[in-house]
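ok trying again, last paste got cut off:
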Amino acid sequence: MKLQLALDRMTVAEAVETAGKAAAYVDWIEVGTSLIKQFGMASVKALKQAFPDKTIVADTKTFDNAKYEFEMSYDSGADIATVMGAAPMVSIEACAETAARRNKRVMIDLLHVPPSRFPDLFRFQDAIVCLHVGKDQQELAGEFQPFGAAEHLHPLYTSRGPKIAFAGGITEASIPRLASVRPDVVIVGSAIAKAPDPAAAAKSISESIKAIAGKEPKR
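nice, full thing came through this time. structure:
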């Protein structure tokens, strides 16, 4: 399992500082949507420049204008960019094509996507599909952690299918539940970024993930 650190609702300088504290224990660094909206692609460039050996995820949450936004993300140093799974299929296809052409990757965000559409999205074998509980769902509706919909993913798992990511309210306490869900990427934001000691939090969560990683099947 990969550990992805999500950086949101802070300045670029704060994002670089926070990522620097946790970098030894995370695999991927996400430039969050709020950073990109407030500071533009300069935020992606800054994180890639600061951490050239890390996989950088630009959480653009693209819904339209797919090729342009993905090209812009990759040109700025992103290794992965995100598209909403609720977007028109032609847009998702354009993102996948752009990623393949640039030898990059696409993450498809399943936020508010009905399970009936999951099979259509799982045909993108080189993608990462992300089961996601959003900020508003967490903060305004009291919904936490994306485990509830996991049952809809299990029938779609194949060794040749897309990788699976989980995001939304993931904490160290919830990590043991991943043993049954078995995602390839665990996305953690506030539990690391807002912790009193981000390095210690990232180290502890990373160790918890490694403890159950041997239980996950290869996909």
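cool. The beta strands are 2-7, 28-31, 55-62, 80-84, 105-109, 128-132, 163-167, 185-188. The first strand starts at residue 2 and ends at 7.
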